[in-house]
Write a structure and sequence with these properties.
Blueprint: E1 3-7, H1 11-22, E2 26-31, H2 35-39, E3 48-49, H3 51-60, E4 71-79, E5 85-97, H4 100-113, E6 117-120, H5 128-134, E7 137-140, E8 166-173, E9 180-187, E10 191-198, E11 205-212, H6 217-222, H7 230-244, H8 246-249, E12 258-259, E13 265-268, E14 273-274, E15 278-280, E16 286-289, E17 295-296, H9 304-320, H10 327-352, H11 357-366, H12 370-381, H13 383-390, H14 393-402
Parallel strand pairs: 1-2, 1-7, 2-6, 4-9, 7-16
Antiparallel strand pairs: 3-5, 4-5, 8-11, 8-12, 8-13, 9-10, 10-11, 14-17, 15-16
The protein binds flavin-adenine dinucleotide.
Flavin-adenine dinucleotide (FAD) binds near residues 11, 143, 299 and 306.
């Protein structure tokens, strides 16, 4: 009988573990934390899960948070500037946001209740060979750091060697959520602001965060340590919201506004990296990377958990229909995962860089054409298809034509360009590398 080991109990490890248990496959999760420790930890991310992930959760029977007030399908985009523009696109299925500490802890409990084995503790790279002897197949689902070094970075798919944004995201009180609405601000030259309702340990909580381009006002705030001066931290954020996200600011009750608790904040940077999807251990056995360990993206497009879940089903399907887990098996999985995840990585990486003209045309078009606004929102929902339209002038033109939208002629290339409504290209990015910053998440 097949016996599988998975190192790491994030979305990738848990969705795969739960899938395999549904097929009756013996599965062991090597988890850094038990469920209680997970509930009590620092928030690791602010995650919105889209329709296809929610459908898999229903299949796994772990859709515990359906029907709450933490869902949204109106995606409100705002681009501030001299001539600000805004548009609202509607996703087909509502997204949902649940505090990942609660989500992961609960799914780990589900996995154990369904006969999955959980071994708690940090696995070292040097443990992998011995672990692989205990299982027919071992998978590494440890996220972006640590033992993922086993899987070399594929340089041609990984254009950045440093984080392109510094991230500060957390849980806040004092923002009036509008039912079924989320808000995304793309502030040219500064970074992005995300706001959505989220299910957490207390009611009426808002997930709010900023991704900053180095050297900007956003950057100065994202580096503030809450513990040093909570008032300065909250006030600094209010200032940025007032200037760049006035819609969010207008819903704030100044008396009640603030970070909920120090542990409800994550700060850090992500170097996007596409890695080889498997490695051969000295004993000849294959170990397969899944989730961020294979495709680790900056969260700008909010796809990592959704992609990890998709990978889990794809790999689960292969495991449950095969008995031989050799290099050919590993290579086939890598190809299937790449076909799905590589366009998502390209889109995420493009969103971090200088926007090309067709990308600006798409956004300007979305502000004037509801069909395009909905398509834009659905990029987040069907991320593997976003690159078809976002990745080339031809793809963008086809999408705009489908909705009867004709972009204004492009300005002369050497001009300092201000598109109407204004996206000021010359100030629009070029994040400088930041050599000595730590990779990831401690406040
Ligand atoms: C601020 C932020 C916002 C985000 N927003 C979104 C979003 O809106 N939508 C979305 O889909 N994605 C989002 N993401 C990305 C998402 O969080 C990740 O892509 C996703 O969690 C990856 O899942 P994973 O299981 O591969 O890795 P992880 O979630 O990182 O899980 C890895 C697990 O492995 C454990 N582990 C690590 N090392 C070891 C070890 N040596 N031994 C044992 N266990 C180990 C860790 O404790 C952890 O539990 C966001 C990320 C951030 C940082």
């Amino acid at each position: 009988m097949t016996n599988i080991g998975i190192v790491g109990a994030g979305v990738a490890g848990l969705h795969l573990g739960l899938y395999l248990r549904q097929q009756g496959i013996e599965t062991t999760l090597y988890a850094e934390k038990n469920a209680e420790q997970q509930f009590a930890s620092r928030i690791p991310a602010l995650v919105a899960r889209v329709g296809h992930t929610r459908e898999r959760e229903r299949q796994l029977g772990v859709n515990h948070w359906d029907g709450g007030h933490n869902e949204f399908n109106n995606m409100n985009f705002h681009i501030p500037g001299e001539h600000p523009m805004s548009f609202t696109g509607h996703s087909v299925d509502p997204l949902i946001a649940v505090d990942m500490r609660i989500y992961l802890g609960r799914l780990q409990e589900d996995f154990a209740a369904r006969g999955g084995h959980v071994v708690v503790g940090l696995t070292k790279a040097s443990d992998l060979e011995a672990l692989s002897e205990k299982h027919d197949l071992l998978l590494v689902a440890t996220g972006r750091g640590g033992i993922t070094e086993l899987f070399p970075v594929i340089e041609e798919d990984s254009p950045y060697t440093q984080p392109q944004r510094w991230i500060s995201m957390g849980l806040f009180t004092g923002i009036r959520n509008v039912e079924m609405n989320a808000y995304v601000t793309f502030a040219p030259g500064q970074g992005e602001i995300f706001e959505f309702p989220i299910y957490s340990f207390a009611p009426n909580i808002t997930g709010l965060g900023i991704e900053s381009i180095p050297g900007t006002a956003f950057d100065a705030w994202t580096h503030l340590r809450y513990e040093d001066d909570p008032q300065a931290f909250n006030n600094g954020l209010l200032e940025l919201l007032r200037e760049y996200a006035p819609g969010t600011y207008s819903r704030i009750d100044l008396e009640k506004f603030g970070l909920t608790r120090p542990l409800d904040l994550m700060q850090g940077g992500v170097t996007p990296a596409v890695r080889k999807g498997y490695a051969t251990l000295p004993n000849g056995k294959q170990v397969i990377a899944i989730g961020d360990a294979h495709f680790g993206n900056d969260p700008i497009t909010g796809q990592g958990a959704n992609t990890a879940s998709r990978m889990a089903f794809l790999i689960g399907e292969e495991i449950s229909t095969n008995q031989v887990f050799d290099e050919e098996f590993a290579r086939r999985i890598e190809q299937r995962v790449r076909a799905y995840a590589a366009p998502i990585a390209k889109w995420s990486n493009a969103m971090l860089g200088q926007p090309e003209q067709h990308m600006i045309d798409l956004m300007v078009g979305a502000a004037q054409n509801q069909g395009l606004a909905d398509e834009f929102a659905r990029f987040f929902e069907k991320a593997n298809e976003a690159w078809d339209s976002f990745g080339s002038a031809e793809g963008a033109a086809a999408l705009m034509a489908k909705h009867g939208y004709q972009p204004a002629p492009a300005p002369a290339p050497e001009a300092e360009v201000t598109i109407e409504p204004a996206i000021h290209l010359t100030s629009a990015t070029d994040p400088r590398p930041r050599a000595a910053e730590p990779e990831a998440v401690a406040a």
